[in-house]
Amino acid sequence: MAEYLDVFDASFAPAEPRRMERKETHKSGAWHQTFDCWVLRRDSAGNKIVMQLRSMQKDSNPGLLDISACGHLLAGEKPEDGVRELEEELGLKARFDTLYYLGVVKEAIDSPQRSIRHLSHTYFYETKLPLTAYKLQETEVDGVFEMNIADGIKFFSGEANSFEGAGFIKGKPVTRRFTRADLTAAEDRCNVTKYYLKIFVLADLYLKGHRPLAV
Question: Residue 104 contacts by C-beta under 8 Å, 6 or more apart in sequence?
Answer without folding.
Answer: 12, 119, 120, 121, 122
